[in-house]
Amino acid sequence: MIAGYRIGPDYIEAHEVFVAEEAGEAGKPGTPGRVLGFYALLLTAAELDLMFVADDAQGRGVGRLLVAHLTDRARGAGLSAVRIVSHPPSEGFYLSVGARRTGTEYARPPAVMWDRPEMILPVA
């Protein structure tokens, strides 16, 4: 569903993007680690724009760490909830961290070819 999807510098410059990464090399302060996941929060729209966790990092708590950071950031920005339009296979994860289903965002070919669950995540 998301094969070939790329995030470039323009996106990162225009949005708040937060990254979870592995620790860098031991004994080398400042050495970046491998990116395990990231998310982008749109504060003006109170919406999670993107959230991805590397396939081999799923099930290790990275997504929950990112959601905890997201809720803290949203709360700090004065939001009471964040809208999520989920990749369909990720719906169960979002429900497990407190989101609730509010509807369906219908496909808009050719940009998006599938229906997606719409949810709200309370953060207050």
TrEMBL record:
Segments forming domain N-acetyltransferase: 1-124
SUPFAM superfamilies (UniProt xref): Acyl-CoA N-acyltransferases (Nat) (SSF55729)
GO molecular function term, any single one: acyltransferase activity, transferring groups other than amino-acyl groups
This protein's record includes keyword Transferase: yes
Keywords: Transferase
Origin: domain of life: Bacteria
One protein family per Pfam: Acetyltransf_10
Protein name according to UniProt: GNAT family N-acetyltransferase
Taxonomic placement: Bacteria, Bacillati, Actinomycetota, Actinomycetes, Kitasatosporales
